Amino acid sequence: MQVDIYLVVFLSILIVQTNGVPRFANYYQDHMVLQRGPQRALVWGYGDANKLTSLRIGDKIYETVSRSKSADGFSEGTWSITLDPVDDEGPYDIQVSQPLTNGTLMTITLHDVLFGDVWLCSGQSNMQMTMRDIFNATEEIANAEKYPKIRVFTNGRTPSSTPVEESIQIIQKWSIASSSSIGGPSWTYFSAVCWLYGRMIHEALGGRPIGLIATSYGGTAIELWMPQDAFLKCYPPS
Ligand SMILES: *[C@@H]1O[C@H](CO)[C@@H](O)[C@H](O)[C@H]1NC(C)=O
Ligand SMILES: *[C@@H]1O[C@H](CO)[C@@H](O)[C@H](O)[C@H]1NC(C)=O
Questions:
Q1: How far is the CA of 106 from the centre of ligand 1 (A)?
Q2: Please, what sign has the CA dihedral across residues 215, 221, 227, 228?
Q3: Does any ligand 2 atom lie closer than 6 A to the CB of residue 102?
Q4: Does the CB atom of residue 140 touch ligand 2 within 6 A?
Q5: Is this structure's pTM higher than 0.90?
Q6: What does each of the 238 residues of the chain score in pLDDT, given as a tens digit?
Q7: Long-range contacts of the stretch 217-222 (C-beta < 8 A, 24+)
């Protein structure tokens, strides 16, 4: 019995280490917006541990070695690269290459990435309420076609008592603003407050790219938005 358990553990370690085909973390997608300079955008993903990993954007190449053990809040086999500040809005392709165990160099690419301002829109049902359900919805949704430099992403309702590495549930992948990406089903996408705010900022800043991440959970108590340790400081177990 003891032997069998060790064998299972050994096999699963082997599988993790040989199946490490590189990929971006799941919310890094085509059409996304990364934060422009003077901030430095982080790009990260998964693959094999301890592999030389290179990232190309424009005429710049960055290199790192994927983690051989978990560190800095990232698990084993992840790689992460902090870009120099990018002021040019793009669009860019971002290519990441890593050798596979059989020696083949595998390259993965994010297409049509813009650099602009990224906003997180979060809250309860008043933030979750969608464009389809507001005053003047038909015209406002049709109007979204005029803003291809605004990109939207809707995250699912996925509470967790411990921090998670990637998104647990993506409702709407990074999408170019259009009548279909803004006028999705009621209470699904896209958040009306988030869109109208983002559109106003985009116009006020002379058309700068804007990334909008909507992630709300209607009816939630404020306590549920607190990290567990902060919550316990306010409400110590009696
Ligand atoms: C290495 O593995 C990849 C992914 O399975 C495959 O596409 C590629 O053809 C392999 N290369 C060699 C030289 O076997
Ligand atoms: C309805 O939306 C359109 C497009 O954004 C806008 O031009 C128009 O002023 C809005 N109408 C009203 C009454 O708010």
A1: 9
A2: negative
A3: no
A4: yes
A5: no
A6: 333 333 333 333 433 443 589 999 999 999 999 999 999 999 999 999 999 999 999 999 999 999 999 998 899 999 999 999 999 999 999 999 999 988 899 999 999 999 999 999 999 999 999 999 999 999 999 999 999 999 999 999 877 878 889 999 999 999 999 999 999 999 999 999 999 999 999 999 999 999 999 999 999 988 888 888 888 998 888 8
A7: 217/124, 217/128, 217/157, 217/159, 218/124, 218/125, 218/128, 218/187, 219/124, 219/125, 220/124
Domain boundaries, the chain: 16-113, 114-225
Establish whether residue 106 lines the binding site of ligand 1, counting it when its CB lies within 6 angstroms of any ligand atom: no
Q: Which atom of ligand 1 is nearest to the CA of 102?
A: 1
| CATH assignment of 16-113, among 3.40.190.10, 2.60.40.10, 2.50.20.10, 2.30.33.40 | 2.60.40.10
CA of 98 to the centre of ligand 1 (A): 13
